[in-house]
Amino acid sequence: MGTAPLRVGIAGLGTVGAGVLKLLATQGDLLARRVGRPMVVTSVSARDRNRDRGVDLSSVRWYDNAVDLASDDQVDVVVELIGGSDGIAARTVETALAHGKHVVTANKALLAHHGTALATQAEAQGLTLAFEAAVAGGIPVIKGLREGLAANQVREVHGILNGTCNYILTEMRTTGRDFGDVLAEAQAKGYAEADPSFDIDGVDAAHKLAILTSVAFGTRVDFANVHVEGIRHISALDIDYAGQLGYRIKLLGIARRTENGIEQRVNPCMVPVGSLIAATDGVFNAVVADSDFADKVALVGRGAGAGPTASAVVADLVDIAIGRRTPTFAVPAGQLAPLTPAPLSARRGRYYVRLMVVDRPGVIADVAAALRDQNVSMESFLQRGRAPGEAVPVVLTTHDTEEVAMLRALAVIGGLDAVQETPRMIRIEDY
Ligand SMILES: NC(=O)C1=CN([C@@H]2O[C@H](COP(=O)(O)OP(=O)(O)OC[C@H]3O[C@@H](n4cnc5c(N)ncnc54)[C@H](O)[C@@H]3O)[C@@H](O)[C@H]2O)C=CC1
Ligand SMILES: N[C@@H](CC=O)C(=O)O
Ligand code: NA
């Protein structure tokens, strides 16, 4: 350590990279006072050298190839802000570690796929691999879990982990705007991934959940065992019915310890209107950890965007500058346990179902019979208006039931002549 500057190389100068440059330029004095030495950007790499990023880079070394930056001997820490699970981002991080440099990254895709291996590589050399920005943007959720809740056994972590989806669902509900329009706006604001299908298909939230699970439960990062559903099929009709029933629809990530193993899933859920999760709107994320001694702890904040994400990146740089070190995923990488996945079909809980049903006598009796045959008990039933001979929405909610029974009943219901579209099922979580 000492008072020598911490020399930072930044690979990737897009939304987050430019945000980090701006933050370091703005807060330089404050940070130097806090860590006892300056943090200096010595090298950068991006695709377009000529783009104006609002910061003078004339005295900074420029690399067309980020992998070359990763072996620059005037760099102590490589900040990887390119993105992608493989390719250039992975090679940059591996090269940096191989050259004895600490790494800070916001790249959840990379960590979800290679987190355990990279942590092993970093820890073997006494290096830091830090990623606060990778999960829930500016919210200090990794530090909160890993350091703040270090004394606890975590039972469950759940929350809103994708700002783009939450922004879309919020705008659709409050303004009635079209899905595609709102997505374009989220992209313009710098919230979405380079390929926004990662956001709307739930993959980005699943990457983050896989990382959270590892930190919370001391298991190897296991993205392959996350059940993933996105928000493409959520219609204005479902959002409206959710409101009538006293719920909001949110895309949630849930990691839960069960008697069958650890359940990891990302899917749209209905949550009660009065809950913290329901009240978390727009680009905000919320993460709730339930643990044995601390009980429930909730963190809420901006999950995407230049400023909040840069704040998390620089917080990791502060740790490196002052020599504050912890195992990458809370437990030394070599001691992370393999994850035993709990089958999602074992979930017990309530369900919302929407059917598009031809309005004719006897149909509802057939639906009710299919539910009865699987021991699924109905809690409420809604059919508004009549349109004899035409398809009308029919909505029902269930009491607690096993997912496997629900799915069997829906397979029968979906096969009825009078049911016109694939039944839509949304899990209800009483958070
Ligand atoms: N945008 C956000 O709100 C958040 C983004 N992240 C993550 O941060 C990372 C960066 O995201 P954004 O800044 O939004 O992306 P972006 O697309 O705005 O920026 C990517 C940067 O990487 C550079 N790049 C691409 N290929 C390159 C190559 N071969 N060599 C050198 N540079 C290359 C581009 O020129 C660009 O400067 C991703 O991993 C993303 O998932 C994490 C949290 C929030
Ligand atoms: N695309 C992501 C960015 C932050 O991780 C999101 O929308 O949450
Ligand atoms: Na974070």
TrEMBL record:
NCBIfam families: PRK06349.1. Its EC number is 1.1.1.3. Pathway: Amino-acid biosynthesis; L-methionine biosynthesis via de novo pathway; L-homoserine from L-aspartate: step 3/3; Amino-acid biosynthesis; L-threonine biosynthesis; L-threonine from L-aspartate: step 3/5. GO terms for molecular function: homoserine dehydrogenase activity; NADP binding. The active site is at 208 (proton donor). This is Homoserine dehydrogenase. InterPro entries: ACT-like_dom_sf, ACT_dom, Asp/hSer_DH_NAD-bd, HDH, HDH_cat, HDH_CS, NAD(P)-bd_dom_sf.
